[in-house]
Model the fold of this input.
Amino acid sequence: MVDQEQILYRGLTRWHTLAVVVGSIIGTGIYIRPASVAQLMGSPIRILVVWILAGALSLTGALTYAQLAALIPRAGGEYAFLRTTIGELPAFLFGWMRLTVSVGTCAAMAVAVTVFLSDLAPLGQPWVQLAIPWPGTTSPIDIGLRQILAVLIILSLAVLNLRGVGHAGRFQAGVTTLKVVGLIGLIVGVLAFGHAPDKSIPDHASHASAVGSTGFSAALLAGLVAFNGWSNVAMLAGEVRDAERTVPWALLWGILGVIGLYVMVNVAYLYILPMSDIVTANSSAHPTASSIASRAALAALGPRAGVVLPFLFMISALGTLHCNLMAVPRVFYAMARDGLMPAALGRVDPTARTPAVSILTIAFIGAFLAVIGSYDRLSSMATFGNILFFALNAWGLIQWPVGKETSIRRGSGRWLPWMFLVGSMWLLVTVIARGSVEIVWALVLIGVGVPVYFVIKGAQRNRRANLPGSPPSGSASS
Done:
């Protein structure tokens, strides 16, 4: 019998895999989210502590996933982990979340690409404007050139992935290189050419008042959003060469590298901008303001940054979008092979050896959401869904039978999953307590997956019962 994992081509090298980790993380968050952290923390030291802790929590998660990837190097990542360690229902709900909630990440990144593109070339007004009901408000839907471009971007990247994972890996490596070089260029440009504001002038936005646990957790969540995406590489394990070694290596060094970059870029922001400019930059509290990255670049480089920054933001969003289009279809492929999704999603292109139907499915759903959804709403729902299943995966590793341990789980490997679980649960409780509409809808959509699972299992039993030679209902089985 042919191993189902060998149907997919293991065409991703060590550097392709590292590019997926880094490219999935560095999106638009680091250019925007520091303003939200600053509003909640109020002082430079606290801001840097939050970013270091967000990186440390992400690192414990990455090391937890590294252990899981070494134990279970299969396509589908978290789906395979959960199915093996906890059971089929949690694994199915993860895939269902990826299909209904987290697929919004693809749409959100496509929308972000067009937003930054419009800074370089005006895209005009929407051709059609609609308003659909949403609890407590209405949600506007615009249809115009921006939406058409978002759809075309998603479909074009889907076509690239259909050609083969090697082509996709090389594209991702190139885009990630541009992202990292651009971020380093921003840091160097600000620190080398910028001038710190006059510290003798009182900055009333900087304060040292006490920060409560709710405010601290909200700031930490804002930081984690900018670190989100590192888990994508686990879904590609079935196509990584020497996955047992390569995936843990890429997770460890990828996260450490991003932590260093993120701390340095925040140092650059704090160096060049007064706190009053940081806390009033683009965020939920100031939706029409320019981003903190734009303000820092303009302060250091002047009008020259007006062209460079939108291009840098656009490349970052494009790379994150491509990582999701690479990784998420592998979840649907693995589920279909296990009979938990339509069999068509498990089909592999005989030439390119890619899960073609799954890739097209995620592309079409993402394209649809790119037209009807907003960036903030889609990204908030996706982040909550990811944190929920981070906690479940950590628990799965913790309760893994002792007899199945490998050397990677000895020593510090025992307490890392506990740290990640505690941190994830704390964030979940805090986020749910805030009661935002997006979180409620995310919980509802994930909950709908429970009856869907039992309907699928019932259909499976009926098919088996109707197969020729099946034992009569109620008869004993071996």
